[in-house]
Amino acid sequence: MVQQEKIKEITERLEKGIEELFESENYKNYLATMSKFTSYSLNNTLLISLQKPDSTAVAGYNTWKSLGRQVKKGEKAIQILAPIIYKKKREDEGEEDDKASARRDKPLSEETEKILVGFKVVNVFDYAQTEGEPLPEIVHKLDGSVEGYADFMKALRGISPVPVILQNVEGSANGYFDLINKFIAIDKNMSQEMHVKTGIHEVAHAILHDRESGIEKDTAPDNESKEVQAESIAFTVCNYFGIDTSNYSFGYIAGWSSGKDLKELKASIEIVRKTAQSIITGIDKELDLIRQSRKLEMSKNVEFPKQEKALHNRSIKL
Question: How many DSSP H helices and E strands does the chain contain?
């Protein structure tokens, strides 16, 4: 009961923290900045990926300049296609058709017809190709260490439904749950706090969202809900064990949320609490087993010299 109450208290703090983030000046600046980045078509996304696979944020020269950043000298542009639009004015002659009838009381107006006439090549640059003022962030990577880190990671591996490995992870991802090959990869080039948080996040995905065995496989939440669920569980479990991930988790969840009403989190709050409780209970049991095993090993090491001495004395007598 005490565990359930503590989990409820942590998730309530999570909701409050994200709501406060939504009202912060930093979040408003973040939204204003993000609005300057174009949403690229599938074809342009593929072109960017082919030319610079590790791209994170892409924009034109002038856009970067307006954000206080300058393209570094000698950087090679990423080339994408931009539509060429011809604008043609057309006069509303007020003919008595269905549309005109529906708006006959409105004054006659000129409308602009947009016609696609072709495409042109334009140059864009990735964030890493620029320098200057940093972009506002709402997600900040954790850089701290974790007391009992090795034991905690061993316990996490013990409760994970799939193997958990540390390795180089390409791109900007901290880790991933491989749905096909059934394993969790965590980028080894991160802090202990990020390893623990990312590990719990991906274990939550494996428990909830595996296509064959996931608890949520039949309800099929969308990607936004999946990410909110996994990160909310990571925040709850980490905080239960004294690891504060709010600098990362609040912004991450806000970024995946559809709005300030926290729809995805509120709809998932019970599954978040139940899954977090299950993971916490499992980790506690694994940690107890690790401690017991260590005590047993230590007691053997203490007794061995006595046995060795007795055998030595016996050999002298013989």
Answer: 10, 8
